Amino acid sequence: MIHEVDEALRLLLAEAGLPERGVEVAFDAPTRDFTARRTAPTVSVFLYGIREETGRRQAGTVAEHDADGMVVGHRAAPRWFELAYLVTVWTNRPQDEHRLLAEVLQCLTAVDALPARVLTGTLAEQGLTVGLDIAGRDTGLPSVSDVWSALGGELRPSIDLRLLAPLPGGRTPAGPPVTEGLVVHVEDTGREDAAGTGGPGRRLRYHGGADPGRDGFAAPRDRGLPPGRRSRGGAR
Fold first, then answer.
1. Of the CATH numbers 2.60.40.10, 2.30.110.10, 1.10.10.10, 3.30.2000.30, which one belongs to the domain with range 2-173?
2. CA atoms within 13 A on the CB side of 180
3. I need a labelling partner for 197 at 20 to 30 A (CA). Which of 16, 79, 109, 218 fits?
4. Is-contact 13 89, C-beta < 8 A?
């Protein structure tokens, strides 16, 4: 799921026209070594924190169906995680960095969730909303200043980007549908075959077993009234 969020952010920033202008999008940590290696204007989208949104955890499973509507498996409810990204820009002049950072900020604040067109893999299959927000509250993740201290660099203008994405639950395959009838072994205590059993079993087959209808496999039949009872409007 994490790599799919990375790809969605890359596609979203690409729609702003950054690659056409020679701006690279990288997911490396903005360390001193990273800044020394870059050769072009770069937008760094660095994942620095992951935290589960426990308030959205759910129990139970959801049935999965094939094209014919048959149940092929059961999947546990997804678990939601907050991903925290430190977004910075790197150019040769502070003025250019501020201009590029403003463009990135405009792109990220133009939507409240990742558009469906940039979702891939399990994010696209689940069809759930991946929320996007610029952090404005403390959620227990490291602060931006702590991140810069851990990276060993100087504090720079940055965007604290947060996304809330679903991690798909485990899948349990379902067994094949029942298409054969029951096998009933009838034992005659008075007669035994050579093997000492009551003889071979008999297989009960049901026509139209794929759709038994509201009455199931049991055929409807009239039930007689108990003695002394009469039907409504009829004779005893």
1. 3.30.2000.30
2. 6
3. 218
4. no
Average pLDDT in the 68-74 region?
A: 77
Q: Angle 2-14/94-109 helices, nearest 10 degrees?
A: 110
Parse the chain into domains and list their residue ranges.
Answer: 2-173, 178-220
Radius of gyration of the chain (CA): 32
What tokens were used for 173?
A: 């395959």
Residue 132 neighbours by CB distance under 10 Å: 22
Q: How far apart are CA 143 and CA 48, in angstroms?
A: 10
What distance lies between CA 136 and its chain's CA centroid?
26
The two three-digit tokens of residue 33, written as one number: 């070594």
DSSP 220: P
134, 113, 129, 148: which is closest to 31 by C-alpha? Answer: 148
pLDDT band of 47, cuts 50, 70, 90: very high
Distance CA 129, CA 36 (A): 38
Report d(CA 86, CA 160) in Å as an integer.
Answer: 5
User: Which residue in this structure is represented by tokens 């139209």?
Assistant: 208
d(CA 48, CA 69): 42
DSSP 140: S
